Amino acid sequence: MTIPLFKVLMAANADQKVGEVLRSGYISEGPIVAEYERVLQETLALADRPLAVNSGTSALHLAMKLAGVGYGDYVLVSPMTCSATVSPIIQLGARPVWVDVDPMTGLMTPLSLRNTAAMMLPGSIKAVVAIDWAGTPCDYAGLRKSIDLYQRDVPIIEDAAHAMFAKDWAGKQIGANPDPNLYLCWSTQAIKLLTTGDGGLLLPPADQNSRARKLRWFGLDRESKKDFRCEQDIHEAGYKYHMNDISAAIGLANLPYALLHSTYHRRHAMRFWQAFKDLSPRVITPSFNSGSSYWIYTMLVDDRESFIKWMTEREIQVSQVHRRVDTHPAFQSAAAFSTHLPGLEEFAAHQVSVPCGWWLSDGEVETIIEAVRTWAIN
């Protein structure tokens, strides 16, 4: 049987919680969504109550809207990500400007951001979008210092789709510290650490939370005492981005298990790092990062095609997971200008991920280790 790269977590009581919602007669956004948001804020000690939305992509789009991204604006973004990160930039009429990444980790660095910002005209940068590849957060304090050298108070949007339960460079749960210029976006899509079937979360700056809640549902205030359909005026057109109570019920059921299972991801990652750190130059693995959620375990191999074939023959599923998005024609034509990205070239050419999840037995972890080591040594 193949060892899978991803697996859907579903709590045993999820069907019971969903059944209660189905029988309640209130299946769209309602009290369960509000409860899910409150439980997440309390459990993760978040600075504010997050917004549950229908996808991580919606969270990113809403964050960019709140940050003021619009037609003709420049948004600095890493190309080492899912297309969902860049699509909202283009849908808002803005233009992506590619920022290089660390060739070892795939993360945007303060230096790479500084180098790109230095090429831009003063005042031309509307937002920065950084990606927490594989569950490892970027150095956001460093990114803030870098961008402030060229343009102060630029909003930073953290695409933490991979990074549920991750910790920042100070060792705190991401989202725990209030930041007036940071928009934090998670995904709770099917194969993420915490799944709601499909969905996402947005934690905007505190002064944008109320506006975000209105934009989430057409521009209407669902928490007002006024009838939101007939008595309220819409002052800013919004979206249908809200989560429904069915998805929120799944999230509430899964949350305790997802928290527990995240410890297995870190434990397996530690074992991989210890087993692979001496395999250079065939296999290069970044140093273990205790703050990473290790949704996947990414390493660099000198011959990816050979490695994937070797692991597939041994029934171990491995993958690049995402292709660098600046190679897509739709994104190439929208980009503001071409930039030299040597770190991305190196990382994108060699990165590959192996299973690292909660579903792995100790024996399967050893099977993966043996397969990787044998390939690297032969």
N-end to C-end Cα span: 25 Å
Number of domains: 2
Give the % helix: 25-40%
Count of extended strands = 10
Structure classification = alpha/beta
CATH architectural designation of the largest domain: 3-Layer(aba) Sandwich
Question: Which CATH class of the largest domain?
Answer: Alpha Beta
Helix run count = 12
Q: Rough shape?
A: globular
Short description, anyone?
By secondary structure, the protein is an alpha/beta fold.
Describe the structure.
The protein is an alpha/beta fold and 378 residues long. The chain has two domains: 14-254, Type I PLP-dependent aspartate aminotransferase-like (Major domain) (Aspartate Aminotransferase, domain 2, 3-Layer(aba) Sandwich), CATH 3.40.640.10; 255-377, Alpha-Beta Complex (Aspartate Aminotransferase, domain 1), CATH 3.90.1150. 38% of the residues lie in helices and 11% in strands. The chain is built from twelve helices and ten strands. The strands form two sheets. A seven-stranded mixed beta sheet has the order 1-7-6-5-4-2-3, with helices on both faces. The protein has a three-stranded antiparallel beta sheet with strand order 8-9-10. The protein is globular. It starts with 13 loop residues before the first helix and ends with a helix.
